[in-house]
Amino acid sequence: MANLTYSHPRTYGKDSRHCRVCKTTRGLIRKYHLNMCRRCFRERANDIGFVKVNSEDSLQAGGVDWGIG
């Protein structure tokens, strides 16, 4: 019998989208059509043109805000 594992076409849903760099389907950032996982985004954010912005809200929340620079 043929191996039927992962033989159904994935045309919609989470499994149809993957990171354009490492091809993983987990932690995907789809905003602005980035289609990159969060790990690859952190490695390449400065090269793409994103700059860390320290604002009052992000400092109070303890987080970092990414902005396009």
Tell me briefly what this model is.
GO terms for molecular function: structural constituent of ribosome; zinc ion binding. With 69 residues, this protein is α+β, with helices and mostly antiparallel strands.
Q: How would you characterize the overall build of this protein?
A:
This protein is an alpha+beta fold and 69 residues long. The chain has one domain (14-63): Ribosomal Protein S14/S29 (30s Ribosomal Protein S14, Chain N), CATH 4.10.830.10. It is built from two helices and four strands; from the N terminus they run ββαβαβ. It has helices spanning 38-48, 56-61; strands spanning 28-29, 36-37, 50-53, 65-68. The protein has a two-stranded antiparallel sheet. Strands 3-4 form a two-stranded antiparallel sheet.
In the CATH scheme, what's the topology name? 30s Ribosomal Protein S14, Chain N
Could you name the CATH class? Few Secondary Structures
Q: What is the topology, as strand order, of the major beta sheet? A: 1-2
Spans of 5+ residues with little confidence (pLDDT < 50)?
A: none
User: Could you tell me the strand content as a percent range?
Assistant: 15-25%
Instruction: Tell me the CATH architecture.
Output: Irregular
Distance between the first and last residues' Cα? 55 Å
Radius of gyration over C-alpha positions, nearest whole angstrom: 17 Å
- Structural class based on helices, strands and sheet pairing: alpha+beta
Largest sheet: 2 strands, antiparallel
Quote the average pLDDT: 85
CATH homologous superfamily assignment: Ribosomal Protein S14/S29
DSSP helix fraction: 10-25%
Count of alpha/pi helices: 2
Family: Belongs to the universal ribosomal protein uS14 family.
GO cellular component, one term: cytosolic small ribosomal subunit
InterPro entries: Ribosomal_uS14, Ribosomal_uS14_CS, RIbosomal_uS14_euk_arc, Ribosomal_uS14_sf
Protein name: 40S ribosomal protein S29
